[in-house]
Structures are given as structure tokens and as C-alpha cells.
Write a structure and sequence with these properties.
Blueprint (H helix, E strand, L loop, with lengths): L2 H33 L2 H16 L7 E6 L16 E9 L2 E8 L4 E18 L14 E7 L18 E2 L14 E2 L6 E8 L2 E9 L8 E6 L5 E8 L2 E5 L1
Parallel strand pairs: 8-12
Antiparallel strand pairs: 1-4, 2-3, 3-4, 4-5, 6-7, 8-9, 9-10, 10-11, 11-12
Keywords: Bacterial flagellum biogenesis, Cell projection, Cilium, Flagellum, Periplasm, Signal
InterPro entries: Flagellar_FlgA, FlgA_N, SAF, SAF_FlgA
Protein name: Flagella basal body P-ring formation protein FlgA
Length: 240
């Protein structure tokens, strides 16, 4: 066999292989589609619609599961497509989706349960009361929202460098009340913003506070007590 013939044979072989692969993927997709029953298609449509109406918190994730459809209900193939709407208001726990097929004249209510998880900071190591918290002490774990409704943290940023106000066990979700970015009696940096100008001075925190909370701070120079917002670990901001 000449070099030219071998080259042509190689190209034909690769082409046949490519066509075979594409055909196999097409058949697999068709098989998956055929494998779905009419009721399963309705459940799938209800789940996809529920995803558009159930509110998911920032950084959260959601898993949706449509309820089983009673086999006694007549649910036939709907070639024209479903008419979808909600029955009642959507909640974090789920929603009931009304699926209609105008072409076939049937409708069915499909409850869709939602499981929402959010990433929250937990303790990777035990933390003692008064301990300064480092990144090595922390981990992030997805927690089901229904099981945890108190205030937690989505990232390490607002926690690292804070002081623990109580002893924390391994695997515990850290709440805002558990730490203080600014702690009572600590010397803090005061950033006084006046328009585009910022003046920095020091003061003493009169109470504990997490990032975003308002605390009273005594200015070390003027001895004046002011209200300021905790803007970081050991730092507060006041606007004039």
C-alpha cells in the first residue's frame, strides 16, 4: 500500500469513527427522551418552572423534587407544550405548579418540594472564649436553610481577626452574636468621613459589635462619645 493510500485510509477511518460517535450520542439522547413517561415529563416541567419562581438567597443552592403524580390521573402527551403557572404563593419550602395541556384538555397540580442550602462558616477547630480567630480555625459547609435560620457568615472575611465571645465546639455554625470584630474596651481606628475627605483617629469601643453593626465609641482625643458603624476588625466608620 502506498503512502497516499494509507493516508486516505486513515482519514476515512477517523471520519467513520466520528460519525459513529455522533450517531451514538444522538441515539442516547433519543433513548433518554423516549425513556421518560408522560407523567415524568410533567414532573420535569413542574420542577423547571418552580426553579424560576422560588427565591434562592445569595450564594445559595436549590434542589427541587416534584411529587409523584397519581397514576389514575389522565396525563397524555402534550405536543403543543404545557401551560404552567403557580397555585398559591411560592415559598422557600416549595410551590405547587399547575400544569395544563390545552390541546388535550387536561390539567394537574404538582407540588414541588425545594431544599435550599447556603454556605455558612463553621468551626474546624475548637475555639476558646476570648480567642482571636484565624482562617485555620474555620471551614465552610452547606447548611439546609430550614435547619438554620439564625444569622451566620458566608465568608471568612468578617470573622478572621475577630475575638470569640464564647467557647465554640468543632462543626458549630458561627453566629454574629458569637464574635466581636470590635470588642468593648478595645482600642479601635475611627475613620471619620466628611464628603471626599477622611480623617483617621483612635478611640475606645464602648460595646461589642460585628461588621455592619452600630456601636458607641469614645474619641481618645476629644473624649466625645459617638455612634459609629463597625467596618472591619478593630475599625469603625462615622459620617458627618
Amino acid at each position: 500500500m502506498t503512502y497516499q493510500n494509507r493516508k486516505v485510509t486513515s482519514i476515512v477511518t477517523k471520519l467513520i469513527g466520528t460519525v459513529t460517535l455522533v450517531f451514538s450520542l444522538f441515539c442516547a439522547a433519543q433513548t433518554d427522551n423516549v425513556a421518560l413517561s408522560d407523567t415524568e415529563r410533567v414532573q420535569q416541567a413542574a420542577e423547571e418552572y418552580a426553579r424560576t419562581v422560588v427565591t434562592v438567597p445569595d450564594f445559595g443552592d436549590i434542589v427541587l423534587e416534584a411529587a409523584h403524580i397519581d397514576s389514575r390521573l389522565k396525563v397524555s402527551t402534550c405536543d403543543s407544550g404545557y401551560d404552567l403557572s403557580t397555585s398559591g404563593s411560592a415559598k422557600s419550602s416549595g410551590v405547587t405548579v399547575l400544569v395544563k395541556c390545552p390541546e388535550e384538555g387536561w390539567q394537574v397540580y404538582v407540588p414541588v418540594r425545594s431544599t435550599i442550602t447556603v454556605p455558612l462558616v463553621i468551626t474546624k477547630l475548637p475555639i476558646a472564649r476570648g480567642q482571636l480567630i484565624t482562617a485555620n480555625d474555620l471551614a465552610i459547609e452547606s447548611i439546609e436553610q430550614r435547619a438554620y435560620r439564625r444569622q451566620g457568615f458566608y465568608s471568612f472575611e468578617a470573622i478572621v481577626g475577630s475575638k470569640s465571645k464564647r467557647a465554640l465546639r468543632v462543626g458549630q455554625v458561627i453566629e454574629r452574636k458569637d464574635v466581636c470584630a470590635v470588642c468593648r474596651g478595645d482600642t479601635v481606628v475611627i475613620n471619620a468621613n466628611m464628603g471626599e475627605m477622611t480623617i483617621t483617629t483612635r478611640g475606645e469601643a464602648m460595646r461589642d459589635g460585628s461588621v455592619g453593626e452600630q456601636v458607641k465609641v469614645k474619641n481618645s482625643k476629644s473624649q466625645r462619645i459617638i455612634d459609629a458603624t463597625v467596618s472591619g476588625v478593630g475599625e469603625v466608620t462615622v459620617r458627618f
